[in-house]
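Exercise 7.
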Amino acid sequence: HVQLVESGGGSVQAGGSLRLSCTASGVTSEHICWGWFRQAPGKKREGVAGLYGPGTGTYYADSVKGRFTISQDNDKNILYLQMTDLKPEDSAMYYCAIETRRRCGTRSIYEFGFSGQGTQVTVS
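Solution. The predicted structure, written as C-alpha cells, is:
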C-alpha cells in the first residue's frame, strides 16, 4: 500500500528557507499526481504546489509563487518542496499527497487519496 513520510519541517525566522521532503513507497506508475498542501490551525486546507505528470503544468498557489519550488526525484520516489523567503503566514502543517491519473484531474491537492502525517513549519 502507499505510504508517504514527510520530513524537513522546523522553525525559522521570516525570510529564511526550508526544504521539505516526502518519501513515498508502494507507489505505481498510475500515481502521477504529486503535491503539497498545508493547514494552519483554524484555517482551511490549502493546496500549495502540485505536479500533474509528464508534459503537464506545475501548480502553485498564488501565495507561494516565486518563493516555493516543487520537484521530484522519480528514481527515488521523493517529492521536494523548496521554500524560500518564508513568511509568518506560511506557518502550517505541510502534507504531501499523491493521486492516480484517473482521479487527480478532478481533485484538489488536499483531496488526493493518499497523504502523509505532515511536517510542521513555523515561521516567526
